[in-house]
User: What shape does this take?
Amino acid sequence: MINTNQMGFGLCGIAVTIAVGALIGWSVLAGNSMLLLVAVIVGMVLLYLCKSRVEEVIEDERVYRISEKASRRTLQVFGLTIAVIGIALVVLSKSGYAELTQAGLALVYSACGLLVLYLIFYGYYSRKYGG
Assistant: This one.
């Protein structure tokens, strides 16, 4: 059952996300990195304020399990995708597109960083809940 406070938080979250996304796009086009930083910080504060107004939150094991599965699948798909795209860019850079090297390496290193971060959290939670 969804109460009206939760629905209000959902709408508030969507509105804040759209506004922050628009401001980020605008700041990138304008070349103004300060606006980008301010937009993200203000967006985080607004989301916190929206969430603090929710009086009753109903969560159960099902919600946690769905969230865990969705998060894990997102990491798997995103990690694999950026690794493959990064490798493809590095390979293309070897065949005459030298400007793609940096982008490819950035994606490959990001995939490695994501994997290391996942392993750190997995080890932490494994010790915390597994004994």
